[in-house]
Amino acid sequence: MRPTSQSVIAALLLGTAGVWIGLEATQTTLLASGGRSLALEDIDGDGLDDLLEFRIGSNPYSVDSDADTLSDLEEMLLGTDPLIWDDLSKITPSAGLYADAYAQADSIYLSVNLIGQTSAVSVEYSMARQQSLVTVTAAAAQPYLVAYSETTSSRPGWYIQRATYAFPRSWFESELSSAFAVTAIVDGIQFSQMRMFTHVDHILSEVRFPQGSGRQGSSTPTGGLVPLEPSGGGEPPYPGNSDEVCVQTLQPIGSFGGGRVAYRVSAAGCAPMASATCFTGCSTSIEDVLIGIDIIGLLGG
Predict the structure, then answer these.
(1) Domain count, the chain
(2) Which domain, by its residues, includes 192?
(3) Residue 225 is inside which H or E element, if any?
(4) For 258-295, what is each residue's pLDDT tens digit?
(5) What is the CATH number of the domain that holds 87?
(6) Residue 181 near residue 137 (C-beta atoms within 8 A)
(7) How many other C-beta atoms lie within 10 A of the C-beta of residue 257?
(8) What average pLDDT does the segment 4-14 reach?
(9) Cβ atoms 250, 264 nearer than 8 A
(10) Residues 100 and 162 sit within 8 Å (Cβ to Cβ)
(11) Residue ranges of the alpha helices (H) in 95-185?
(12) Strand (E) positions, 105-213?
């Protein structure tokens, strides 16, 4: 796939909200610092920034953490686990979208990845805050683009496009809660993803919904709350040990129209693994209101 300049722009913003790829929290400590890892650094060259690999638990020093010949990035795109060996004969190639984020210094880095046989179309980017929701075209976000690459997949006829954006951290730090989303059509299929942010102990954090948590189709989704900036710059150990430093149950309390929805934290408590450090303010987040994006409402459904 050799995308035109228009298709490249379209592929740049392929997702940060909606069809959730189950990821469990991988933080092993609470407070964040600069550490030795740098933003945009990708030591193993697999297409996943090191700081992002530390967040999801894959090995930043190995292209293929589970040695099944699929790169870690391709596994995230296909919806398989980069830490569990897969029988490739049982995996059917398909279009996919994986988007994730991490914080470093004064920026939030959004990694957007696409696998498909055709270019993305109808791409839009949305950001929801407590009082507003703004939607822009992919072209409007181009000034924030800091990295782009295009590679072939391990499957003939399939291609991977990857883009990374750097947004001002102040956009998210200034809000008690916020969310961003991207919608796009890839190979004729509508894709979308969302990320939700909030603050606990004055630390910018993300609510991550593990697979099977009830994120979609549930009136009370449950997710793990983890710092958006990898602690210590994202130093090992790896792979991730599924630590959750704060577990929240969210109850929808209303829709504000145009795709913006509010959730009330109805329960919160620490359920960390042995190496996790609990947010001291976890239980006090009960009754907090978090802002999310309803993709169906965003699309006018």
Answers:
(1) 1
(2) 5-298
(3) strand 222-227
(4) 788 999 999 988 865 555 667 788 888 999 999 999 88
(5) 2.60.40.10
(6) no
(7) 10
(8) 29
(9) yes
(10) no
(11) 170-173
(12) 107-116, 121-128, 133-137, 145-152, 159-168, 177-186, 189-200, 203-208
